[in-house]
Specification:
Blueprint (H helix, E strand, L loop, with lengths): L8 H6 L3 E8 L4 H13 L2 E7 L8 H7 L2 H4 L2 E4 L2 H10 L2 E6 L6 E2 L10 E6 L8 H6 L2 E4 L11 H16 L1
Parallel strand pairs: 1-2, 1-6, 2-3, 4-6, 4-7, 5-7
Helix pairs in contact: 2-3, 2-7
Length: 170
């Protein structure tokens, strides 16, 4: 940590974060959850909302991929994603579902406004973001793909999205 000039968990809590909240909508793999925590730590995400069947720390399988980021990144649990959306919207967040739906924006065309706060929703590994959450979103964004598969792993998708927000807002 010293050689890499990394800050401590306590210092991380005081560092200014980017105005982005990551929302996990029924993410079932604890390894994916851990990876999302670790990436959120790397890119100074404000906090994470874990919803529905998404597991919460502490858990050894989350820790296996989070490597302690579950302690540095703040998180909150909601029984369902719609409650998280209502709460985040009341706090001024723009709600963006990361999902392939009719009318979704190509991520390369999505313009991030530095004056806005964003909540980005990532869905279940099989079913994606719930339709109710899509319907409540201010926009839906999809990552362009050119291969034979129609989707990316949720932790990879989250990493791409968090990185793009970080490089534009930090």
């Amino acid at each position: 940590m010293i050689e890499l000039q990394r800050i401590s968990c306590e210092e991380f809590k005081t560092v200014q974060k980017i105005p982005v909240v990551v929302v996990g909508d029924d993410v079932r793999s604890l390894n994916n959850i851990g990876s999302i925590f670790r990436t959120a730590d790397a890119f100074l995400i404000h906090h994470i909302c874990l919803c529905g069947i998404t597991a919460t720390p502490p858990h050894p399988d989350i820790h296996k991929t989070a490597l302690g980021a579950e302690d540095s990144v703040d998180w909150v649990y909601y029984d369902d994603v719609c409650s998280a959306i209502d709460d985040l919207r009341s706090k001024g967040y723009k709600i963006c579902s990361i999902e392939q739906v009719k009318g979704s924006l190509n991520f390369s065309q999505f313009i991030i406004n530095k004056d806005d706060k964003y909540a980005v929703i990532f869905g279940n590994e099989v079913k994606g973001v719930k339709q109710e959450a899509v319907d409540m979103s201010d926009c839906c964004i999809e990552i362009p793909q050119c291969g034979t598969k129609h989707s990316l792993n949720v932790s990879i998708t989250a990493g791409i999205v968090m990185w793009d927000f970080f490089k534009k807002l930090h």
